[in-house]
Amino acid sequence: MPPDRPDPEALLARVKDEEARQRRGKLKIFFGAAAGVGKTYAMLEAGRDERADGRDVVVGYVETHQRAETDALLAGLEPLPPRSVEYGGTSLRELDLDGALARRPALILVDELAHTNAPGSRHAKRWQDVLELLDAGIDVYTTMNVQHVESLNDVIAKITGVVVRETVPDSVLEQADDVELIDLPPDDLLERFREGKVYVPDQAQEAIKNFFRKGNLIALRELALRRTADRVDAQMRVYRREHAIEKVWPVTERLLVCVNASPLSARLVRATKRMADRLDAPWIAAYVETPAQLRMPQEDKDRVVQTRRLAEQLGAETVTLSGRTMSEAILGFAHDRNVTKIVVGKPRRSLWQRMLLGSIVDALVRGSGDIDIEVISGEREDATPIAPVRRRAIPTEWAPYVWATAVVALASGVAWLTLPFFELANLVMVYLLGIVVVATHYGQGPSLLSSVLSVAALDFLFVPPVYTFAVSDVRYLFLFAVMLVVGLVTSSLAARIRTQADAASQRERRTAALYAMSRELASARGVEPLLAIAVRHISEVFRSPVVVLLPGAGGSLDAWSGGQFKLDANDLGVARWVHEHHQPAGLGTATLPGASALYLPLQAPRGPVGVLGVRPPDGHAFDAPDQLHQLETFSNQTALAIERAQLADEAQDAQVRIETERLRSSLLSSVSHDLRTPLATITGAASTILESGSQLDAQARQELLESVREEAERLNRLVQNLLEMTRLESGALQLHREWHPLEEVIGAALSRLGKKLSGRRVHTSVPSDLPLVPIDDVLVEQVLVNLLDNAIKYTPAESPIRIMATSTDEAVTVEIADHGPGLPRGEEDRIFEKFYRAQPDRGRGSGLGLAICQGIVKAHGGRIWAQNLPEGGVAFLFTLPRVGTPPAVPADA
Amino acid sequence: MPDPVIVLIEDEPQIRRFLRATLTGQGYRLFEAGTGADGVMEVGSRQPDVVIVDLGLPDMDGLEVIRRIREWTAVPVIVLSARGQERDKVTALDGGADDYLSKPFSAGELLARIRVALRHTAGASHESDEATFKVGELRVDQLHRRVQVGEREIRLTPIEYKLLTTLVHHAGKVVTHQQLLREVWGPAHTEQAHYVRVYMAHLRHKLEGEPARPRYLLTEAGVGYRLTAE
Questions:
Q1: Fewest CB atoms less than 10 Å from the CB: which of A96, A560, A577, A699?
Q2: Do A748 and B220 touch (CB under 8 A)?
């Protein structure tokens, strides 16, 4: 293949991408450096142009700030009435998302993409509203300033000194089909600002004035231009790739950024995002869980969560690593994933701390091999102060300390006893043993206490002068110091081992839970049991009630009956939204956070199979991405299992269809043969009589007529059987059960067979006390007729037939035995299959008689089977269950 | 006695042709109708001795034809229907038909039914006088309330005897469970079909040589009973 041809896989991906884009609405962003450059104006003008071209344009939300020229542009464009939200006593106007979706214009204009919606709205942010509009196939024009770009947020804060809270993820900007830069030179903008043409909210007068400084505006303009240029550059790359202008090398760079609880981590994440964009490389944000993390204050934990969310929003893959030391965990992961560059913050430990404890950067650099390490400054000025509380007060348990004291006392006792035999230095070992015991059993605090007590006891009891804390020889001080240090090191090591074990066991528990669930799911059959298993496991692991919603007929979404909490109308609405948009929503997410529970789509490879709802008791359990990921893992497993069950059902249906098809064709060939043979005989015989009747002698005529009648009877039987079978199979068979003496039904069958039985000895043995049985007499008579008919057909004309009925408490068994050749071995079961003939060469039947018998007996709740008899011949047996109590019959004198 | 008149109400021309050949060959005068409405008119104008009605007619239900005929005449009605429609037959019989035949049937069966029907019409005036019923070995002497099989005297309970005489009264014709219940136990017991079955079993054990293979008291599954007449 010539190297410059586009890769077919890539082409296919592009075609699919194109198709998805076709269905989606088009997003155009009017992008500017600052307020007042004329974005809204430009957007409205563009809207008017579209309108003039005959497109259905609606103004979704525009803030004109009462500027005359903007207001003038609004005239003639259809406005969408805004949604009013009461919040904190004031009435806020918001974009009416549902109204817009219902109105379905071709194009909607929505100002201020970065806007934060009023509480109680479906989405927290307006850009989410816009994405939903695009999903619905509506084109959107919107406006945005460079300061709202998430990845530039920190840079802008540094330049202008104003921290912007309302940000838009870069992905939204990247998704835009068009970004139009609205540019205005800083001097012109300042001019406009001075003329009061730039809208300034009253409460932020001063800040805005600081903001509109020439230096700021130049920097912002540069950022906006550069961001737009980056985009153009990316477009160029895509164009080249599509047209195979340049060979695209496989991804060579992969970045890893290490985040921790430091407030500077967010800056690291943003910097890495920018770096990754420039390199066009994927990037990973890694957080290392060390034993110390478990003792971190809640505030730090929250910050870690926020940083990781930010990284996810910026397009990073986030992972949590655990290991003995940070550097070890990071390097191990980096090597596994072929990371080429690790981004870390400048160490914040002081020089002596670094010398004593080492620094992560040093460790990384030492072990990095061919991986680059980028160290980024962590400047402190924009750092929000860290809460001074490093450790929460934990209620102290006193028992371990008592035990620690007791161990020291014991060690002292042992030392006292062994004093005559050992030197003082050896006694130290006894105490150290005690410290180790305390450390491994009771953790850090008690072992610290025991270290101190041990030193004190040694000094007091054994070091001369004894029974005082005074020390005669200075060398002993050194001994104490060493003993104390050994004790401290031992206790901290022991404590670390304990917390590491705790962390490991927590992970272990989750992994085990996931494993247990997938194992149970794998062994379950059918959707119902699967759901029961999933709900039970998820609610146990996350200690929250769980519901599942499944799509029903006609596109509805219904709660599965085994759910653990009730859904109100609001929750149902959230669940529907989740199902339709394939995104999590509800509690703890940015979409519809007012719901009482978190809802996740059950997303299987073929599409959504339902919605999982979890209602954590404390309301915050899923704020951490870890928890959310964990829950997603569980929901993915569940979705896969549900899809597997559905596929199995479909496969079974297909199997049934194939089987039905096979039967149908077999029926057709069998029926056409069985119908044609008698018809041929009848036609032939009748035409012979008609055409040459006068030349035939009486006997020949008689024979022809006999054969006409016989074949007609055969046809009749066949048609009868086919009808019967159809009735049985279509489920149209209705049992008319009444209480019958079986003898009478046997009698009816025998008289119906009439002359066919002539010359046969038929032994019937029906006990006179045989109870009445609840049966449909017409159908059971049919069973008897078919079985007897078979016996007549397949046995020698003179051989006897035996009919026997016996009764147990549960059922009456009827046996019809003949003295024929019996059944071929192994065919006792197959003969009940449709169109199966034991001896095809001898077969005169339709192959339906026994199948009909089986159908009828089964409909009665009975069983039918055949067995060869030891004395020769075959016996057909069937049972008719005795259900209910036979009715009483009044006696008659 | 003039040739008996038969009205045949049947929409299938082939069956009409076959019956025409059979019946006229036997000396019956046959009038045919292809629809229920024509048939009711034929019955009104021809004063037949027997009416043969197919249950599946194009214009109206065979049951409706019987109901209309029964409004003014007691002429014997023989119903033709397919096997598997036992409930329809019972409805027809309880609704005024005298007997039925399942398609396909042989000419012999039909002629036997017609003979029975004609005998009942002819005997309607003096049947009760002829107090002794004989078929095969079985003798029922209603005047002296004696039942014999061959030389053997059979002792019957009152209900068994009532049941037997009811069948004798309709000898050769099918009698539904409903009819038997009404005539033997009275109109209040028409739901207890198992009464009939249990007493019929008693009767067979007393009258039949081989009760599971009866000669006289035949069962028509899903419909009723028939006492052999010839």
A1: A699
A2: yes
Q: pLDDT class for B1, splitting at 50, 70, 90?
A: low
Of B123, B158, B179, the residue that ends a domain is B123
Closest residue in A to B194 (Cα–Cα): A739
Kindly state whether residues B164 and B114 are assigned to the same domain. Answer: no
Q: CB count, 10 Å around CB of B133?
A: 20
Does residue B9 sit in the same domain as residue B119? Answer: yes
Same-domain status, B154 and B188: yes
Is residue A273 domain-shared with residue A419, that is, in the same domain?
no
A96 lies in the same domain as A117: yes
Q: What is the ipTM of this complex?
A: 0.88
Residue B189 at interface with chain A, using a CB cutoff of 8 Å? no
Q: Answer yes or no: do A300 and A410 share one domain.
A: no
Full domain range(s) for residue B151:
132-227
Q: Which of B123, B150, B176 represents a domain boundary (last residue)?
A: B123
Given A745, A803, A887, which is nearest B221 (Cβ)? A745
The Cα A56–Cα A47 span in angstroms is 10
Chain A residues with CB under 8 Å of B86 CB are 778
Tokens of A373: 């390490």
How many domains are there within chain A? Answer: 4
**Contact, A331 vs A337, CB < 8 A?**
no
Residue B79 phi/psi, 5-degree rounding, is: -100, 135
Contacts of B205 in chain A (CB under 8 A): 768
Smallest CA–CA distance from B200 into chain A, residue? A744
Check CB contact under 8 Å for B201 and A892.
no
Q: What is the mean pLDDT of residues A391-413?
A: 76
What is the distance between the alpha carbons of residues A617 and A396, in angstroms, rounded to a whole number? 27
A893–B157 CB contact, under 8 Å: yes
B145 and B192 both lie in a single domain: yes
- The pTM of the full predicted model, rounded to 2 decimals, is 0.47
Residues with Cβ < 8 Å from A682, sequence gap 6 or more? A708, A711, A712, A715
- Give chain A positions within 8 Å (CB) of B159: 892
Alpha-carbon distance B32 to nearest alpha carbon in chain A (angstroms): 25
Is residue A603 within a helix (H) or strand (E), and if so which, with residue range?
A: strand A598-604
How is A57-100 classified by DSSP, letter by letter? EEEEE---TT-HHHHHHHTTSEEPPPEEEEETTEEEEE--HHHH
Question: Tens digits of per-residue pLDDT, A748-803?
Answer: 999 888 878 888 888 999 898 888 999 999 889 989 999 998 888 888 888 899 99
- Which of B207, B210, B213, B217 to probe by mutation at the A interface, max A CB count within 10 Å? B213
- Chain B residue whose CA is closest to A757: B213
Q: Quote the Cα angle for A610-A611-A615, to 5°.
A: 155
One domain for residues A223 and A265: no
- CB neighbours of A214 closer than 8 A, spacing ≥ 6? A186, A187, A190
Residue of A nearest to B204 (CA): A744
Shared domain check, A267 and A216:
no
Distance, in Å, from the CA atom of A850 to the CA atom of A828, rounded to the nearest integer, reads: 11
Distance from CA of B159 to the nearest CA of A (A): 7
State the smallest CA–CA distance between residue A756 and chain B in angstroms.
14
The DSSP line for B139-177 is: EEETTTTEEEETTEEE---HHHHHHHHHHHHTTTSEEEH
Q: 10 Å Cβ neighbour count for B8? A: 25
The residue range of the domain holding A332 is 255-376
Sheet holding A57-61, edge to edge: A78-79, A57-61, A107-110, A139-145, A27-32, A178-182
Instruction: State whether B104 and A712 contact (CB < 8 Å).
Output: yes
- Does residue B175 share a domain with residue B115? no
Q: What is residue A225's predicted lDDT score, i.e. its pLDDT?
A: 86
Q: Do A356 and A463 reside in the same domain of the chain?
A: no
Report the range of poorest mean pLDDT among A108-112, A258-262, A400-404, B172-176. Answer: A258-262
Residues B115 and B137 in one domain: no
